[in-house]
Design goal:
Helix content is 24%, strand content 26%. It has 391 residues and is of the alpha+beta class. The radius of gyration is 23 Å and the shape is globular. It binds fe (ii) ion.
Length: 391
């Protein structure tokens, strides 16, 4: 069952068998460069994918280059109400237009031949296009060479893009999640800080690990003391949304203690933690006093970057009186994530082994791993059926 057996259909069909007899994804999904490219060209294009934090573009004229599906994308705060996304290349010779965050821009100017575009992507001018001093500023001629816009939507502080333009409406896409968050006034959140990690593991391992609480009892001693395994439920999932949660009896300085709560929060939510994955790679966990986002961005078959964004309620995010309480939360997330990284890198190393073929799964905790695997396979199968043996 080595890595060169990734065309073996049996390995892929085990994600559809009952969990006790089935498996999660085989090794190739975590190691093979062809599978990695397939993911970039399918699931990272055909659905809504997190692109950036909206707070990085607070003012009209702010520009932020990002990467989605391995492609350079440009986000532009084009007016007070909208962040727009474009392919970050000049229509002339394909130079990347913007390579670092910029502010107060009225236009987007290519450094190669000074073609300029408006913040809405319209080509404004092609200097010397018809010879020295013979500029093209004819809007009709220019129009065909506008920047190529990408669907872009902002939800709270999170900017999502859909590269192929064919995903469902964004509001329909997130509606089930919005319903689950009923009772939390997310507009009360303010950004606190971002933690970044470079991990020697496939991005899927990060998301799979995030959604299952089974590893808590052996990997996270503090978390296990906060809420024991006996009180934890297995994750649930519906289509592209996976979720899990728990009640905690006592608060802790890292969770639910010392920082302001969401306004008008119901009493049951004052002792709850709930976490969610929005397929493919955006996740968050919400508590009465904080919200943490997780994004795993692939940088190769066996590498990814993980970002944790930490938000607090009201002035919990920036007031000096909460600095100490905030730092407890931030350090706790940092420590918890470091407890995971060693395990993630071991799981990546294990996927080079001929002794692993998708795993023996817990029928209680791991059905979610198979569901996630099915979402992956369905997404890549839309581009290539051969990878999945036709399934
Ligand atoms: Fe963990």
């Amino acid at each position: 069952m080595g890595n060169d057996h990734w065309f073996d259909p049996d390995l892929w069909t085990r994600i559809t068998e009952p969990t006790a007899q089935g498996s999660a994804l085989p090794n190739a999904a975590y190691t093979d460069s062809a599978f990695f490219k397939l993911e970039q060209n399918s699931l990272f294009k055909n659905t809504w994918v997190f692109a950036a934090f909206a707070h990085k573009l607070p003012n009209v004229g702010d520009l932020l280059p990002v990467e989605v599906a391995g492609q350079p994308i440009l986000l532009a705060k084009s007016d007070e109400t909208a962040i727009r996304a474009f392919h970050n290349v000049c229509r002339h010779r394909g130079a990347m237009l913007v390579d670092e965050w910029k502010s107060k821009c009225r236009t987007i100017v290519c450094p190669n031949h000074s073609w300029s575009y408006s913040l809405s992507g319209e080509l404004l001018a092609r200097p010397h296009f018809f010879g020295g001093d013979k500029h093209d500023v004819n809007p009709d001629q220019c129009r065909e060479s506008n920047l190529i816009e990408i669907r872009c939507e902002t939800w709270n502080d999170w900017v999502f893009v859909n590269l192929d333009g064919n995903a469902a409406d964004f509001s329909a896409h997130i509606e089930p999640l919005v319903n689950k968050l009923d009772g939390y006034d997310l507009s009360a959140l303010n950004f606190g800080t971002e933690l970044e990690f470079d991990i020697h593991a496939n991005w899927k391992l990060v998301i799979e690990n995030f959604i299952e609480p089974y590893h808590v009892f052996s990997c996270h001693p503090w978390l296990n003391s906060f809420v024991s395994m006996a009180e934890r439920s297995p994750p649930v999932f519906e289509n592209h949304i996976l979720s899990c949660g728990y009640e905690f009896k006592e608060t802790d300085p890292a969770r639910g203690e010392g920082l302001p709560y969401f306004p008008n929060l119901s009493s049951d939510k004052k002792r709850r933690g709930d976490w969610y994955v929005l397929f493919p790679n955006f996740a968050f966990e919400i508590f009465p006093d904080q919200l943490a986002t997780f994004v795993a961005t692939p940088s190769g078959p066996d590498r990814c970057k993980e970002s944790i964004g930490l938000y607090f309620v009201g002035d919990g995010a920036n007031s000096d009186q909460y600095t100490k309480a905030r730092n407890v939360v931030i350090n706790n997330w940092h420590d918890l994530n470091n407890e995971d990284i060693g395990i993630l890198e071991r799981m990546q190393a294990g996927r080079l082994s001929d002794g692993f073929d998708g795993g023996v799964l817990s029928p209680y905790w791991d059905p979610v791993q198979q569901h996630f695997a099915r979402l992956i396979v369905e997404s890549v199968a839309s581009v290539s059926s051969e990878v999945c043996g036709g399934h």
